[in-house]
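Title: Prediction job returns without error message
Component: structure pipeline
Severity: low
Priority: P3
Assignee: unassigned

Description:
Job completed but the reporter wants confirmation the result is attached to the right record. Sequence as submitted:
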Amino acid sequence: MAGVLTREALVGRSGIMAAVTDCLLDRNGPGVLVLGDAGLGKTAVINAVIQELGNRVRSFRVFAGATLAGVPFAALAPLMTSLSPGQINEPLAVLKALSAALNPGNEPSSVPAVLVVEDAQHLDDGSTAVLAQLTASDVAKVVFICRPHPAPSGEILSMWSEGLLDRFDLQPLNGHDVAELCAQVMGAPVVPSAAAVLRKASGGNPMFLLELIEHARNAGQLINRNGAWMLASELRGNSLRLLDLVRNQIIHLDRAQREALDTVALAEPVPLDVLRQAGDHYAVDELQEMRLISIDSDAAQHVRIAQPLVGEVLRQIVPAARSLKIRQCVLQLMDTRPETMDGLLRYVSWGLEAGAKVPDQDILEAAQLANRLFIPSYVERVAGAIKDPALKLAAQVEVARARWYRGDVRGTAWQLGGIIERTNDPATLRQVSMLAAQLARRQGVGANAVKQAAYEWEAALARLAESKSGISEADLSIGRNGCRLLILEGMQAEGRHVETERELRQIWQQTGDPETRLLAGTLLGEAMAVTGRPLSALQLLGSVQDILDAAGHWGLQYSGFFKRRYLLALTHAGEFRVLEEYLRSHVSQAPNSLIYDGGMLHFHGGLADLLRGDVGSALPRLRQAVSMLRVSDMQSDLPEASAAAAYAASLLKFRDVAVTYSAEYDALVREGMEPSLSAQAHAAMATMEHVGLRQTLTRLTHLADAAAANGAVGPEINILLLVLRLGDLSVTRRLISLTETCEGRTAEFALKYSQALNAKDAAGLVALSGDAAEEGLELAAADYASHALRILESRGDKARQLEAQRLVKRRTAALGRAVPPSHKDLPDLSKLTRREQEIVALVQTGSSNRDIALSLGLSLRTVEGHLYRMFAKLGIGHRDKLIRPPRSFEEPV
């Protein structure tokens, strides 16, 4: 084990290391029992402790093992070289020999002896009894390193219960620790969604995680973009090293246990009663006790491999003939095909791999399910096995969707070609039309192309209605509603939310089809959020969520469609804490969808940071979002994310970064993609330094007018707040009128803010600044305080002016972002590399060198080296020169 885990694998073990160190240094204290599954780092922890203690202890080491378990005192033999063959089996002689070996001359030493026993669960009873006496006599501190299964002997556990040993149970790494370990190993941060997927795949086991990272990097599944690692595809395949690690973990299993474990791996999830009938039920109980399998709490008590990676490896190493034999046995014992989603996927893929005959309908359902679970590699692997011409077109749609997930726009378009004219299946017609609409938006051919997909769908429905095969009235009605919804979605893409609401509400209230209601309700929620009723939208979307929860696997394909509108409503409502908690909860579950829609989630998280004013956090998240959306952009969010990243970079005066993202945004617009009004406003703010304040204000005013013309109250409010931020107070009355009837915290603060500005109410602005700070709106809190100070300065109120100046300093210091520097305050940061600019951003937030190292996944020495080179480039002598004084009123944010 010591050769498997590196020093980095000790992430998350500092508390245990400190406690073990205390035990070993306390001469009158207990010994140590370290318990943990293979790969959790038991040996690495003890090695690190011994190394840290250095010459303060004298360490000795013996190794137990399954092959030595039946030989008395065999594990202790290296310390008993002084014994004659006749004494080797005498416990008293063994104890004396051990004592002499650990303390030569039998004289007390000022440096205590520490005896480390590896794999102590395999110790024979005699050795355990001798070591117990050794521990009780204080001759040496004994450290037992054990796996929990097979369990350590009763004697070792008794030593723990009697206080002779302190017990430490190593647990899998948590999400934070996995992210830190990934960053250390790869030399750069890992985007949170990728870290969550890696943790789920590895089970938080450091040994598996390190191997998984290495394999994923070599296979191109993990890629570095903009200084952060992200997943470009789902994790597939296993390295030879990982195969060996799993083999070593299960080598101690007997034949019955191995047969049961292979059955679970191949058939999981398999009902418990089927598994017990297929093999030795005692072996099943033993595997559960060893925590190699887990049993669900559902009615059928489905059994799964406890560690997903172990299951993947086992399926790879079980011979084909044995796999087919197990399959035949399991199928004979099961009444029907598997009921669970992953059970169906395993049933189909296992059958195809074993050469069994699998019905085409089952293969199609598995392919559809795999896409809904975001496993495109599965779809591409099984869809070609479908032979029935009536199902081939439906399978072709699923292959197109798999390519869509991967960001293969051309491949998707090629696969979809001709399907809508040839299919006679209403369900296939629905799927191909909706995917064609998504493709049209991503190809940049505009909202009209989305509506064109609806018109083609409608024409195909008319063709089916007139054909000999016909179409049921119910399917025809559902199809027509789908066409209308697609047209309404296209209208919303054009910003025409007011026009869509009435018809969407009618469909929502009148249709009985759950899928239609889900789509109508989600689009209606978007319309309400954009037109100034985000709280009402959230209430409605709660009802839509209920439909999703009850939908089963068919609703999974709409999860991203729904999440995007839900996050939009939270953003317009100003419910940023709820938004962050929603994202955190979703990411922690690590669904496969994170690989493909994680960019959308990171974008909304970064946008929330930007709107709050936490620009130092916003920019890295937005940059990660842009990188991920370049790979997979299912909701056409790339223009929005590029504009927001450009704006955030411009606030931090990262000119090269701002120019890069502005150029990308412009290119996407030229390609025909249609950004929202908010994205256009962010893009305008990002280029203000180049085009000037007046032109930027003119552009923002035009955008606000366009929002007003379309009834887009939410975007209009946000744009007018940007106008205020640039110092144009002429819009305060307009903002008052707009926000008086609008819902949400954003509108509430905007109303009070504009009213106080209009009334020149300095006291009101100071109070509002406090309220905003409590809500986490640090930038707004600083803005309110600054405006209060400006009003007091104009009045010449010296006493209150001094108090307001202190408030401005406090608010500015509290900003969780780098304060935008001005030319006169900071050197030209455009000379710096991207990594150096990231370090500057963290310096400006008040982070220490150690904090920066932890944040960016670098060593402290590397950060110090970067700073030294930066000082030379910029002609400065200290990091304080990178921090400017608090912003004055006149400086736009």
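Comment from assignee: result matches the submitted record. The chain has 44 helices and ten strands.
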